[in-house]
Design brief:
Elements lengths: L3 H14 L5 E6 L12 H8 L4 E7 L2 E6 L4 E5 L4 E6 L9 E7 L3 E7 L5 E4 L24 H9 L5 H6 L9 H10 L13 H22 L3 H8 L4 H4 L20 E5 L2 E5 L15
Antiparallel strand pairs: 1-6, 2-3, 3-4, 4-8, 5-7, 6-7, 9-10
Helix pairs in contact: 1-6, 1-7, 3-6, 5-6
The structure holds a DNA duplex (16 and 16 nucleotides).
DNA sequence: GCTTGCGCCTGAATGC
DNA sequence: TGCATTCAGGCGCAAG
């Protein structure tokens, strides 16, 4: 699934291959991918056709193209979304949802098996589309304010992993990177945020940024790499995962088998020795 | 106002 | 073999 580094790789691909091109024709193959564009598929197409793409931007896992009338077109990849630039006559993917014919004879395709993602023409500004307004900055954003996040995290009465996954506190952190950053710090996922020391939160946020930067470095920045990544060869994270998906494997730090808990209808992986489970007031999951 | 949990989706993996 | 169930999880939204 696309995590923030993958979304950034996609953004760079769009910046290199889509910015400067004009949308000549829009084909919507599955309206469910436009369900958040309330005015419907026909309106979506009308708003894009004839417009030139001037920028590709990102905050957290939200991605948007800016058109030459300053309209942002928001794209979210959800769990399974892909953005591909291909020849118009290339074989169509099974889950192709939206195809944009671009000037210069290429086609931008939005492919999404599980339809958790989608596209929409947004209100708001090119810098902050409406759908992104409530999303916090991500740890790779130059304006990311660590001390502000430390303060706001400690003001909450919740568990530390819940806080990491809350997009209004810090954006771009998914289940995989939350577990990896907690392992690196190390902290148990159920530690109460209001009982953490500021230095612990600072360390945690530093590890979140490091995990993302490591993955971005591995993911490459070429469009070839983009193809590789979105085509499911996710060698991207696999090599460097210490916790996520490692149930039963020895912890790289202490050798204790990694545990897996069911948590919030998903999984949490943790080392029982390095990340001891908190008790009493220190726990909040 | 803040925190918590559900539902959206499909297909691979698993169970009977 | 074939059908049913489980699991994966980012996000918006409603309920607590």
């Amino acid at each position: 699934m696309p995590e923030l580094p993958e979304v950034e790789v996609v953004r760079r691909g769009l910046e290199g291959h889509v910015v400067g091109r004009t949308v000549e024709r829009v084909e919507v193959l599955d309206v469910r991918s436009l369900r958040r564009h309330l005015a419907g598929a026909r309106d979506f197409a009308a708003r894009l056709e004839g417009r030139t793409v001037t920028a590709a931007r990102r905050r957290g896992k939200f991605l948007w193209l800016v058109l030459d009338d300053d309209t942002p077109v928001v794209c979210h990849l959800g769990m399974s979304g892909q953005m591909l630039v291909e020849q118009p006559d290339a074989p169509r993917e099974k889950h192709l949802k939206v195809a944009l014919d671009l000037s210069g004879g290429t086609q931008l395709r939005f492919v999404d098996q599980r339809i958790f993602g989608g596209m929409l023409v947004s209100g708001g500004t090119p810098d902050v589309p409406d759908e992104v307004a409530h999303i916090a900055l991500d740890p790779l954003d130059p304006a990311f304010d660590v001390e502000d996040v430390v303060r706001r995290a400690r003001a909450r009465r919740t568990g530390v992993k819940r806080a990491l996954l809350d997009q209004t506190l810090v954006s771009g952190v998914g289940n995989i990177y939350a577990d990896e950053a907690l392992w690196r710090t190390p902290l148990h996922y159920a530690r109460a945020t209001d009982r953490l020391r500021p230095i612990d939160v600072r360390r945690l946020l530093g590890h979140v940024a490091d995990v993302m930067r490591d993955a971005l470095a591995q993911g490459g920045t070429s469009f070839d790499a983009l193809y590789v990544n979105v085509n499911g060869q996710s060698g991207y994270f696999d090599r460097s995962l210490n916790a996520y998906g490692q149930e039963g494997e020895p912890c790289a730090r202490c050798g204790t088998p990694i545990r897996r808990d069911t948590w919030m209808n998903r999984s949490s992986y943790w080392c029982p020795r390095c990340q001891p489970r908190p008790r009493g007031a220190n726990a909040r999951s």
